[in-house]
Amino acid sequence: MNDKTQYIITCRFSPWGYNGKIEYPAFGVKYLIEVDIEEKNIEQVFKDKFKEKIKKDFDGEILFIEEVNFATI
Fold first, then answer.
1. Distance (Å, rounded) from C-alpha 35 to C-alpha 67?
2. What's the rounded Cα separation, in Å, for the pair 31 and 20?
3. What is the chain's pLDDT, residue by residue, as a tens digit (73 residues)?
4. Which pTM was predicted?
């Protein structure tokens, strides 16, 4: 039996640019993370993994957290 489960985290990032000018529009990204099955705070685990990988704090908005259902894949 596997002691991990996977989640798809859908995020939105605000538009951004330089010198007060918007150069890049808002965009969305989906991330797949794997966590211990007994983990309850998926959002915090995601933010910690984001910081570890991207090397900065998560500055977006989490829209959805969906558990991956392997039966439908």
1. 11
2. 29
3. 578 999 999 999 999 888 888 888 889 999 999 999 888 899 999 999 999 999 999 999 999 999 997 665 5
4. 0.79
DSSP state of 3: S
Q: How many domains does the chain have?
A: 1
CA distances from 1 to 4, 11, 37, 42, 70 (A): 9, 30, 11, 21, 14
- Domain span including residue 21: 4-72
- Beta strands 61-67 and 4-13 are antiparallel
Helix-then-strand count for the chain, H and E:
1, 5
Contact 47, 53 (CB under 8 A): no
